[in-house]
Amino acid sequence: MFKAVIGAEKLKEAIESVSTLVDEAKLKLTTEGLSVRAVDPANVAMVSLDLAGDAFDSFEATDGELGIDLTKLNGIMEMADKGDSIELDLDETAHKLILRMRGLSYTMSLLDPSSIRKEPKVPALELPAHIVIRGEDLKRAVKAAEKVSDYMSIGVRGDIFFMEAEGDTDNVQLEMTKDQLIELKSGEAKSLFSLDYLTDISKIAGKTPEVMIDVGKDYPLKIRFKIAEGHGDVSYMLAPRVESE
To answer: pTM of the prediction?
Structure first.
C-alpha cells in the first residue's frame, strides 16, 4: 500500500537528484518514508536518496519496492506548477502508480523491480578533509571549469579549499579560505573527477544553501545536501580518475 500527497517542488527535487545518474530505479517504501540507492551504468557514481514521511502532506505506506521509470515520471512532473500538490496512489492489482494534480490524472505502469539493477552497497569511507560550501559557489566553480577541461581537481591545501581545472592552454581555479566557507576541516586531500558527473550533480546541489563535501587523496568524493525543506537527504559518491605518474 502506498498513498501520499506531496508538494510538486519537493517531488521534482527528489526525482531529479536520482534521474541525473540513472533512468530507472527501485523505490523502497517503509512506514517511515521512501529511499533509493542507485549506481550509474558506468559504475562511476552512486546516489542515495532518503525522503522522510514528514516531507509529505500525508503519507501512508507498507514495506515494499516499486520499479520506477524516472524518465517517464520526470515527463509527467513537467505538467506540475510550483505550487501544485501531487497525489500518489498505488494500484497494487494493476501494478500501476496513479498521479493526480489539478484535475489531471496519470496512470503510470511500474517496472518489475527484479529487472532493475541491484542496489549498490554504500562503502563506509572516512575521508580526511570535510568542507561545507554554499551550493551556488560549487555550481559556479564547476561551470567555470567546464570552459577549459573535462576534469576537475578538488582538494585542500593547508586552510584553503580549492577546485581547479587545467586544459591544454588554459586553466581555472577557485580557492576559498576557512572564513569564506561555512565549515572546513583540513586534511591531505586532492583528487581528480570527471566534469560530466560534477556538472550534473552541481545542477541539483547548486539549488541548496549548504553542500557537504568529503574528499581525500585519490579517493572517491562524497557530496551531501538536504532537500524537501530539510526532510530529505541526498548523497553522491563519485569515483576519482587516478592520474598516472
So the answer is: 0.94
Residues 144 and 218 in one domain: yes
Predicted confidence (pLDDT) per residue in 47-90, tens digit: 999 999 999 999 999 999 999 999 999 999 999 998 999 999 99
List Cα–Cα distances, 53 to 39, 80, 215, 230, in angstroms: 24, 21, 31, 12
Q: Are residues 136 and 102 in the same domain?
A: no
Boundaries of domain holding 234: 129-238
DSSP 127: -
Number of domains in the chain: 2
Strands (E), 58-159: 58-61, 64-69, 85-91, 96-101, 104-109, 129-133, 151-157
Q: What is the pLDDT of residue 245?
A: 43
pLDDT single digits (tens) 159-191: 999 999 998 899 999 999 999 999 999 999 999
Q: Largest alpha-carbon pair distance within the chain?
A: 61
